[in-house]
Amino acid sequence: MTDSSSDSQVNSKLNKLRSAYRSRLNEELERISEQAQEAHTHDDRGEALAKLRHRLHKLAGSAGTFGFHQLGNHARYLEQQVQRWINQSEPVKPQELEQLNKELSDLARHLGSDEAMSSAVGVESTEQSADSNSPAIALIERDSILADYIAHQLESFGFRVQSYQDPHELLNNDQGGMDLLLLDHRAGASEVAATPTDHWKALLREVACPVIFMGGHEDFQVRLEAVRAGAEGYFVKPLNIPNVAAKITRSIRKRRQGEERVLIIDDDVDLLAYLDTVLTHAGMTVETLQDPSHLLDRTSSFQPELVLLDLHMPEVSGDELAAMLRQFEKWNNLPILYLTQEQDQQERAHALMRGGDDFINKPVGEEFLIKTCRNRVRRLRDMQQAIALDGLTGLLRHANIKDALETELQGAARSGNPLSVVMLDIDHFKHVNDTYGHALGDVVISTVGTLLTQHFRRSDRLGRYGGEEFVAVLPNCDANAAERLVNRLREAFAEIKFVDRETSFSCSLSAGIADTRNFPGLMGEQLLELADAALYTSKQNGRNCVSVAPAQ
Amino acid sequence: MPELNRILYVEDDDDIRQVSQLALEDVGGYEVMLCESGQQALDSVASFNPDLILLDVMMPDMDGIETFHRLQDQGALDGVPVILMTAKVHPEEMARYREMGVVDVIPKPFDPMTVSEEIARIWERYHD
């Protein structure tokens, strides 16, 4: 289509169009609220609403094209809301219009975050992309020596750290793209004195990302403050950095788990559209189905994490569909909720016996719907993780990483892309356990888990293979790239200081790599053996190094 | 498979028309005619003789669906595939459009850098 020389021309033209569009947006947002005002006062409310819907429709259709995705999504959501009012027979209530006005003012807020996002995304080369993907931590610590130490240690874990003196300095800077805030609870102490909780609440609302507090001592009052302010964690100084890093990783992972996948089956097209809009707007991935006969196909292809079933449909009832899904072992734990107006206790009890988990009553309130769906999916994920993940490291367990390897091997065979299998082992781990005790040994193991999670891509599969042995499956990655990555991880691990009362120590690790391209047609088990043999070579060569299994 | 050269796009939004020119001409390398209303499309379709037509659905006066039917009545759609440019549609809605004779739907907002590739893919499938 285009060669790279004209790419920059297209980009500059596009940027011009984008800024022209941007310059008209404020005016357009104003017109939209005027139009909403008119729906308030105008005699012919229907006409005013139709005009309002048209404006929102245009905005929804164009904003994303110019890069204002959040603004566009919100406009789409509001458009559908107004559309429902136009469709319904009863008049719109004044408080509903009030609510709309509030949500219209959110358009400007979404525009703001779109802009923050686009300025945070710079020009990035492929080599840098791993770094810009690594989580960004804002650190507020007034003791600059301590701040440097914490920053340096966290950077060894693969985080990007930006230090600030106090909350004001943070707020005065552009904080777009910040993943987590780590702060000393005494920062900005003057304001804290009056009403600490309110102060922190205001700050945390502003930053809109998970927050972890650090404190000078163990104190119930301070912990309570942290909880009330919405902090996800509280660590007492001197900090145990590997624990802090593990906590940060868990907090961020929770955030990045991705959109909840919800499948909705209902014969009412309008209700489907409404549910779709509300849940999509809340950030979920939604598929809808009007014809229940496609239920099994769609459940297989879409892999939902939650199914909403209309209980009463003309040809087949929701509880029959639930019973059908439950006939399959693989969908035994899939949450199923019935959408219903049914109040008869016996009917409801019967429906539960058929396999559904609970009810959502019609008419459906937005807030309740979103929270219910989110909560159900979260519980499912927690449960799946508890089963599949190793408690200490948060990585896949032995059997699960082997399964994951087989799955990835099939993918690699289909695509023809390389795949590398890495086996890692902590050097002299027995010595650590014997000298410093098992508790600290566990910290060392969980540190490798955290490092692996930080240093590899989300598409990579990571597992704790045995006591101090780890496996990483890297799709789309040949031995050269894998060696570079693992060496970076190895160096970072050697940098980390573990603290035991007065002394501190560091550890090293060795690794072996097998690249599928050097061994075509081998199964997972055999590749693991080859990676293990390469690991043995690393141990023979004096440890703290990486070896690649030679092609045969 | 015949080559895709000329695209007619009916769109009432000025901003989208401007960015489409860039997306279809500069990025896609197509010859493009942009119409701001269904009526304008009816008047100029014969002289431009497009290989493919893009239709916005929600337009004042004559909407995309009516434009589609009137183009069909004029005989302007013989061998000329039509793609609707609209919000995300439900599978049921998609089925209705297909029955009408629409080839595909490109959801709005579209990405100006990739929309031409999407059109090319639909064109290939259409001629498969």
Task: Walk me through this protein's architecture.
Chain A has 552 residues and is of the alpha/beta class. Chain A folds into four domains: 19-112, Four Helix Bundle (Hemerythrin (Met), subunit A) (Up-down Bundle); 131-255, Response regulator (Rossmann fold, 3-Layer(aba) Sandwich), CATH 3.40.50; 261-386, Rossmann fold (3-Layer(aba) Sandwich), CATH 3.40.50; 398-548, Reverse transcriptase/Diguanylate cyclase domain (Alpha-Beta Plaits, 2-Layer Sandwich). In chain A, 57% of the residues lie in helices and 15% in strands. In chain A, the strands form four sheets. A five-stranded parallel sheet of chain A has the order 2-1-3-4-5, sandwiched between helices. A five-stranded parallel sheet of chain A has the order 7-6-8-9-10, with helices on both faces. In chain A, helix 1 runs antiparallel to helix 4 (94-120) and helix 2 runs antiparallel to helix 3. Chain A is globular, with a radius of gyration of 27 Å. The model of chain A is unreliable at 1-5 and 119-131 (pLDDT under 50). Chain B has one domain (6-126): Response regulator (Rossmann fold), CATH 3.40.50. Chain B is 45% helix and 19% strand. In chain B, strand 4 (82-86), helix 4 (91-100) and strand 5 form a beta-alpha-beta unit. Classes of the chains: A alpha/beta (552), B alpha/beta (128). The A-B interface holds A 1-2, 6, 9-10, 13-14, 17, 21, 24, 54, 57-58, 60-66, 69, 72, 76, 269, 272-273, 276, 288-291 and B 13, 15-16, 18-19, 22, 26-29, 58, 60, 86-87, 90-92, 108-113, 116-117. Chain A: The modification Phosphohistidine is found at residue 57. Chain A: It comes from Halovibrio salipaludis. Chain A: One of its GO terms (cellular component) is plasma membrane. Chain A: This is diguanylate cyclase.
